[in-house]
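Researcher: Go.
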Amino acid sequence: MREPRKQAAPPNPSELRDQGGQRADARRNLDILLSAAKQVFTEKGVDAPVRDIAARAGVGIGTFYRHFPERADLIKAVFQQEVDACADAAEALAVEHPPEQALFLWIDRYLDFIATKRGLTATQHAGNPAFSALPAYFESRLTPALEALLASAAAAGKVRADIQAWDLLRAIALLSAPDSPGKPDNSKLLVSLLLDGLRQGAQA
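Model: Structure:
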């Protein structure tokens, strides 16, 4: 029996570079597909039909599968892209705003990531080997971003200096977990109470 052909690994958008063999239209299609997938996942969840994503991107099904042979490939690429965007926002906010404001603006950005990407976050626990590296990727990108913001805010005397970034990331995620169906979303209120606690004990 002939062995099935091994499929090439999907492109990682964070590593994509301008190379002679990479056509501009292929790069453009990849970006469009990721953007469309993000929108469709937000609206319909990660199990949305592939044809919906291709239609939103304005490409054919063949183009979709050339970039992402498996649904897991697409979910992984979208998740990594969103984590990268959230992590990269920390540096920009630190440049544009005072330390305390930069910290809390980034936490708002992180809350948006959690709220709109719950389906993607759930893939970490889906049991698919393709997702096995996602929790470590999440931690490796977001923890240093928050650590830098916390350190600056603590040095400015605006927040406590004994808070670990990973503990805060997990606490915010837990407080943002959806409640029972039909119940109002109080996540922002709960997180605001948590952030008030960050200010207590600050060395002003």
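Model: Residues 1-9, 14-21 have pLDDT under 50 and may be disordered.
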